[in-house]
Each structure stands twice: as C-alpha cells, then as structure tokens.
Amino acid sequence: MTRRSFSRAELETFRDTSVPDLLPGPGQPLRLLFVGINPGLWTAATQTHFAHPGNRFYPALLRAGVLEHAIDPAAGMTPEDRERLRARGIGISNLAHRATAKASELGDDELREGGAALRALVERERPAVVAVAGITAYRTAFGERKAVPGRQPEGWGESELWVVPNPSGLNAHETVDSLAAAYAEVGRAAGLL
Known about the structure:
Layout: H1 8-12, E1 32-36, H2 41-46, H3 57-64, H4 79-88, E2 90-94, H5 108-125, E3 129-133, H6 135-142, E4 150-151, E5 160-164, H7 176-189
Parallel strand pairs: 1-2, 1-3, 3-5
Antiparallel strand pairs: 4-5
Helix pairs in contact: 3-7, 5-6
C-alpha cells in the first residue's frame, strides 16, 4: 500500500468518526484482543487501528514475533494484512470509538461507557487474552485506580486481562524494544509465540 500523507485540515475532517473493530470471522478463535484508547485522526482517515507515522504498534508487534509481516502504520492495512491478523486470531478494538486528535480530549464518562461496551464485547467474543494499551485510560474506564501494567489479578470471565504500554509517539518513554517485550508477553499468553 502507498504511504499516505494528510494535511491538518484533511485530518480534521475525520474528527468524531469511528473505525470498526477488527475481529476474526465466525468460527475463527479470537486469541488476542488489543484495545486502544480511541482512534486518532490518522487512524480514522486510513481506517486502520494504531495508524500514524509515529505509532510503534505494528513495528513492535513484528519485533515481538506476534506479526509475521510488516504493516506500515502510515499507509494503513491492506485487505491481506487484515486477513493475516484475523487468521492468527488477533483482533483490535478501542475503549472509545470517537476519533480525536489526542486521547486527552475524551471525558471520563466516555471512557467508562466504552469500558462497559468493551466488557460486553469480551463476553460475546471470549478472547483468550485482552490487552488494553494504556494504564491511565484503563484505570479511568474500569475504576481500577491502583492498577499497574502487566497481567491483572482478575480476568474477565475466561479471558486473561493485561494492561500494556500505549504505542503512541506521545508515550515517549517507551521504545519499539520495550513495547515489543510487553507485546511478546501477551502474545505468549495467547499462544501466538
């Protein structure tokens, strides 16, 4: 896929739009569900979760061995990329589905509502592992003020629950290597590695 570029004005036209969840099809197991905070404007423009030239999600997943093929976070996913993820049992969702320039534009109520909707999705789809990317948003959405990154003491039904670092370029203290280490842990827990 060709690398994309958008002006600020073009990106603003995608504000408040949503990106549908990426889930395996009927009869395909959901082994690992990654959950972002909400779509950014680039994500909404490309209709690809975790898309932005500075986002380290896909490079970290590739380095961790969770992905077997590179996905360019600036270009967006091809139909083949989506099918590869589904075939491996990898899904992607968000706590809030409204696109914003920054996650800080979301209110606490919106995150809590999204948390309730996520719990319903997990109950319906029954992933082996849920990995929420972002400790602060997780604490707010689920009222777990003292939660720490890593595997959470209680899962959701049969699903293991993890909190992993957010791959946004705004989360500057994380590197592709540190993200890959965290994502490899959830990949192993889901039986992908």
